[in-house]
Design brief:
The chain is mostly helical. The chain has one domain. The protein is built from 21 helices and no strands. Helix 7 packs antiparallel against helix 19 (about 455-485) and helix 14 (about 330-355) packs across helix 16 (about 365-380).
Length: about 575
């Protein structure tokens, strides 16, 4: 099979899913452009602002699509072969992830643009609201931990790490400069884009000339040192005004994401047509991972964001719902945005497909496999390989920044809601509280059974994926309750919720099983990962009970009305 045919087939299936299932969801949710959206009803020019769907789609995609749809598919492909990962990306995106994103967006639209946590409070009560916020906070902690360490792995690569780190720091400085210019002089956005976007490419070009070599600090190794410095970045990025870094960095990151995906796709097509790329990696490698964990459920939690992500609901209901111009735009932005992220995941998986199993083993980390593949695709367009590698690695780091600072800021927001503390010192203290657990995790040395050091992100990825998928299942459960109250066909959300719950719970049970085994035989050990997994399971179980109670109450009240 030719790789061009494979990619076009997947793109066609995603397009068909958008046209047919997306249209079904639009009718199911009764999207009506005559109804005033929160953006129009509460327009304030700050949070609530009607935005054309094309521009909003780009902003939304840059917020939800970080390194997740890159790392997850490549890892799953390495462990089980590219075919199972590809099937799950396409089917999961169409029937689960897209439903999750669109449903949470529409639910927020129907609740004055409030967050999904507020929707759950309205449908399931105060206890469910608190439980959800606690679960969300722990999930954000794992997101920050996993993505911090995988970014550090990019910067410690002996060959290109210092150059990429230098380009990365220049990029962040450029974003701050853009934010200052926009705030101070308010130039037309198109002018700022024309000026600053080419400068991102200049940062990539300058990186190798000014490599950033830093010494280890506090007795840590170089990787842990970068972990600490990245968390320091997260701290300040979370407490400074959004106009100074978050917004311009997100804007530039959105363009960078689009540019990377488009030129990679073009390069893949051109190279594939001339038979430069073959399907070298095995389509299927086995039913268990190298650590002996089964394909079910590990495949589904490993791919994570490429097929479904609970984090998307926070973005959909947190910012996007406040900018929807017309209700019908929810289909393009919510459902279409998820399918576009699935396509990003397919391109990432193709960077693994074109190399052999032995070459994949030499490259080791997903970021290196991704960069190698993107450089090969760009090579089909005549772009020099060294520059292309720096381009791909900076793109990878840029996607991660989108997740890191947004997740840290969201962690602070959740902490505000949980504690009710909104004093002058609260942003500083609550941000530190959100980052202290990731700091402990990334500075711990993790070794395998043979005593070899293991990158922290490889340990945390399964837990991150499990918590993220369990978060998605809880969102779908809450949406099911809302749909049930509204008299809609709630099975559209409940069926995916049950499947994702099974997958996530089974995965977390496999994670804590060795720890529980040690307790049973009288050899308990302190394992913060397993302990956190237990907390997540407990919170999810309590929230599921609240959901079942709410559904029973709705059934009971509906039964009384019919009699």
């Amino acid at each position: 099979m030719n790789i061009v045919f494979l990619v076009l087939l997947c793109a066609g299936l995603l397009g068909a899913g958008y046209f047919f299932y997306g249209r079904f969801l639009r009718r199911l949710f009764a999207l009506d452009d005559r109804v005033k959206t929160p953006a129009r009803e509460f327009k304030d020019g700050i949070d609530y602002e009607p935005t054309p769907k094309v521009y909003l789609l780009g902003q939304h995609l840059s917020a939800i699509a970080a390194a997740g749809p890159i790392v997850g598919p490549i890892l799953a492909g390495l462990w089980f072969g590219w075919l199972p990962a590809l099937i799950w990306i396409v089917l999961g995106g169409i029937f689960i992830g897209g439903v999750h994103d669109m449903a949470s967006l529409v639910a927020s639209l129907r609740h004055r643009g409030q967050s999904i946590a507020e929707v759950l409070r309205a449908c399931m009560g105060q206890r469910a609201y608190i439980l959800f916020l606690l679960f969300l906070w722990f999930s954000l902690v794992y997101i920050i931990t996993a993505f911090t360490d995988i970014t550090a792995s990019t910067f410690v690569d002996l060959e290109r790490g210092p150059a990429v780190a230098s380009s990365s720091m220049m990029y962040l400085t450029l974003a701050i400069l853009m934010g200052f210019v926009l705030k101070k002089f308010n130039p037309p956005l198109i002018v700022s884009t024309v000026v600053f976007m080419p400068l991102v490419l200049v940062c990539i070009w300058l990186g190798p000339f000014f490599p950033l070599n830093i010494p280890p600090i506090f007795g840590l190794d170089l990787r842990a040192t970068w972990d600490v410095l990245i968390l320091v970045y997260c701290y300040f990025a979370s407490i400074i005004p959004v106009w100074l870094l978050l917004q311009p960095r997100g804007y530039l990151g959105g363009f960078f994401l689009t540019l990377t995906t488009v030129v990679s796709f073009i390069g893949l097509l051109i190279g594939g047509l001339f038979n430069k790329f073959a399907l070298n990696f095995p389509a299927f490698t086995g039913w268990s991972s190298p650590l002996g964990l089964p394909l079910f459920p590990l495949l589904f939690v490993t791919v994570a964001c490429g097929a479904c992500s609970g984090f998307h609901a926070i973005v959909s209901s947190g910012t996007t719902a406040k900018q929807i111009d017309k209700e019908s735009d929810a289909r393009a932005v919510g459902y279409g945005g998820m399918l576009l992220e699935s396509f990003v995941a397919i391109i990432a998986l193709c960077t693994l497909i074109i190399i052999s199993r032995s070459d994949a083993g030499k490259l080791a980390d997903p970021n290196q496999i991704y960069a190698n593949g993107i450089a090969a695709f760009l090579g089909s367009l005549g772009i020099e390989r060294g520059w292309a590698l720096n381009f791909a690695l900076l793109a990878f780091a840029t996607f991660v920044y989108d997740t890191l600072d947004v997740a840290t800021r969201l962690g602070r927001y959740v902490s505000h809601e949980l504690t009710g503390w909104r004093g002058k010192l609260s942003p500083f203290v609550l941000t530190f509280a959100t980052l202290i657990i990731p700091l402990i995790f990334v500075t711990r040395k993790v070794v395998d059974a043979n005593g070899n050091a293991v990158p922290g992100w490889k340990i945390f990825w399964s837990v991150f994926g499990s918590s993220n998928q369990l978060l998605a299942s809880l969102v779908l459960l809450g949406v099911s309750v809302w749909m049930m109250r509204s008299g809609k066909k709630f099975w559209v959300a409940l069926a995916p919720a049950l499947f994702m719950t099974l997958v996530a719970v089974y995965s977390l049970v496999l994670i804590i099983k060795p720890w529980l085994g040690g307790i049973i035989i009288g050899k308990p050990v302190f394992d913060p990962i397993s302990l956190t997994a237990v907390v997540l399971l407990f919170l999810a179980g309590m929230l599921a009970i609240e959901g079942v109670k709410a559904m029973r109450q709705i059934r009971s009240s509906q039964g009384k009305e019919t009699t």
